[in-house]
Amino acid sequence: METQNETKFYQDSSVTVTQSRFVTQSKTYAMRNISSVHVFEIIKSKTKAVLMIIFGLLFLFSKDIFWVGLIIIALGIWWLVSIKNEYAVRISTNAGEANSIISKNKDYIQKIVNALNSAIIHRG
Fold first, then answer.
1. pLDDT tens for residues 5-53?
2. Taking the CA atoms of the chain, what radius of gyration do you get in angstroms?
């Protein structure tokens, strides 16, 4: 329940940041328990896509299955290009560190981190 005197720093359909709470779809954190917050980049592995391209290159040496190699290479390149890193709101509490919100949109995560930092500063 929100009081009239509570300052809101950020709100959207799944996240609310006030001077006393950080509310996500699955958890509520008390701002007094959050000691720090930052953007954390989750780097996705590209190994399987690269292996697929290499596997496709091996097919290029055979006259019978040359086209299969081209298709495998094309799919591998598409997969490699489509792999995007994810970003998380990483908060530190007395219980340790946790990724509270994860998104591929870095700007969205940065807005939440900025709001949380403002709430921490406001708390004093």
1. 788 999 999 999 999 999 998 889 989 999 999 999 999 999 999 999 9
2. 22
Angle, nearest 10°, between helix axes 66-82 and 47-59?
A: 160
Residue type, 22: F
Q: Answer yes or no: are the C-beta atoms of 7 and 118 closer than 8 Å.
A: no
In the beta sheet, which residues pair with residue 92? Answer: 36, 97
Q: Report whether pLDDT(2) > 60.
A: no
CA–centroid distance for 53 within its chain: 27
pTM of the predicted model as reported, rounded to 2 decimal places = 0.78
Beta strand 21-23 pairing with 28-30: antiparallel
Tokens of 60: 């290029």
Q: Cβ of 84: how many Cβ atoms within 10 Å?
A: 10
Q: What integer pLDDT is reported at residue 3 of this predicted model?
A: 53
Q: Rounded to whole angstroms, how far apart are CA atoms 120 and 114?
A: 10
Q: Which two tokens stand for residue 45?
A: 């592995």
User: What CA–CA distance (Å, rounded) separates 43 from 35?
Assistant: 25
